[in-house]
UniProtKB/TrEMBL annotation:
Keywords from the named record: Membrane, Transmembrane, Transmembrane helix
Membrane-crossing segments per the record: 56-84, 90-106
InterPro entries according to UniProt: DUF983 (IPR009325)
UniProt key word Membrane: yes
Pfam families per record: DUF983
Tree of life domain: Bacteria
Protein name listed in UniProt: DUF983 domain-containing protein
Phylogenetic classification of the source organism: Bacteria, Pseudomonadati, Bacteroidota, Flavobacteriia, Flavobacteriales
Amino acid sequence: MLKKGTKLYSILTGTCPRCHSESMYENKNPYIVTETMHMHDTCSHCGLRYKMEPNFFFGAMYVSYALAVAVGVAAFIISFVFVGCTVKEAFITIIAALVVLMPWIVRMSRNIYINFFIAYKDDAIASKNA
C-alpha cells in the first residue's frame, strides 16, 4: 500500500508533492493526448505553485530520458529473453512500448522531477488557511 506522506505516493498518484491532497493535472488521464501536459497553476489546498519558474519542467526531460531507457530495456528483455523474439522483433517491441507509454512517461517524469525539489508537509493545508 502506498502511504500518504511519502514521495512515492506523490509520484505514482500525481498529487501535490507538498500536501498530497489533489492532482497536479487538470485531467488525471494521461492518454487524452491533447491534455497530457496541462497542469493546474497552483494547488487549491496548500497554494504550492507547480511551475516555480519559467520552463521549470525542462529538467524533467532528463528524467524522461531515463524512464524511456528503462522501458526500452525492459521491453527488450521481456520480448527477447522471455518471449523468444528475434532481435528485429524485439526492437519493434521497444518502439511500440515507447509509443504506447509516452504519455505515462511524460507525466511520471514531471512527477519525479517536482518531487526532487518539494517535500511533503503535514501542516501544509493548515498553514495556508492560517
